[in-house]
Amino acid sequence: MIIILTSNATERNREDIVENLKARGFGIHLxxxxxxxxxxxxxxxxxxxxxxxxxxxxxxxxxxxxxxxQPYKLxxxxxxxxxxxxxxxxxxxxxxxxxxxxxxxTVETEAQLMESALxxxxxxxxxxxxxxxxxxxxxxSFHGHGVEALKMLAQARQETGMPVIxxxxxARDLEVVCEYADILQIGTRNAQNYTLLREVGRCRTxxxxxxxxxxxxxxxxxxxxxxxSNGNYDIMLCERGIRTFETYTRNxxxxxxxxxxxxxxHLPVIADPSHGTGKASLVPAVTRAAFAAGADGAIVEVHxxxxxxxxxxxxxxxxxxxxxxxxxxxQIVPAVGRTL
Length: 340
Ligand code: PEP
Ligand code: MN
Fold this sequence. Notes:
There is one protein chain. The two termini are about 35 Å apart. α8 (about 255-265) links the parallel β12 (about 235-240) and β13. The protein contains eleven helices and 14 strands. The chain folds into two domains: about 1-70, 2-Layer Sandwich (Alpha-Beta Plaits), CATH 3.30.70.1140; about 85-335, TIM Barrel, CATH 3.20.20.70. The chain is elongated. By secondary structure, the chain is α/β, with parallel strands linked by helices. α3 packs parallel to α11 and α6 packs across α7. The structure holds phosphoenolpyruvate and manganese (II) ion (MN). Phosphoenolpyruvate binds near residues 131, 187, 188 and 275.
């Protein structure tokens, strides 16, 4: 359940409530809004909730106690109705401005990464993507350059000023990835790896949580709840397409997810039209659709020479195609009341 304090509740009032709840053995999560403080209470049984609600609603600085019936509480809309804004080295995700993350699927060489980084930056991207640890269906294919690639990303950040996002696949790599990355990406294959989700929940680097390729929206939100309940609230949800009977495209991009998640959660929602389609020719239209449907940002694969890419070349935009897409978005995004 959540306890909503009145706007004139003092810090002392809040502390008293928190102490009281902790003494009863409940877990506490605070959401400090501009106007109101909301206290998330974890671990209370139904009968305890009733008792707590009755006692606390009698206090003058408690506005209301709301039982939450969904299996996710901290990432649910009511815990932070004003929405979550995540500040990544000055780039704010979840605000009025939408955010573009772009770069190669995989960090291949210093030259390839720098060429991609400079091109996406010139076209107006805010954040640089690049995989250092790559999940692969085949054990025999390329799995990324690991720490060497992380160092190249840090170098590209230094030279372009763009924060970097990269995937962490294994809790054993978390420390080193956090050393270099500004945003941790959890890939679709790890979207329900609860051990990893718990671990990223214990660190303070923002997380982009991709949707599991067969996850329902409710399962996806519960995966996010694993991260939040361990203390990391800076989470973005990323729709990257789901498995359906359709094989023409690599995945089926679920446009429903955008308005649905905006109803259900306060977390920013990001579109990944590259994995959502698997085809470069389809990426621009699907990106435009995602922004029109309420996406707070997109993550798009761009490679200076897609035909030579070690991974995901067929879905990677050339720098010229990416620049064209950014121009198109400068029409769409303001039309839905946001900026780019
Ligand atoms: C990626 O972003 O390159 C990637 C592997 O994504 P996903 O986990 O969505 O397949
Ligand atoms: Mn990829």
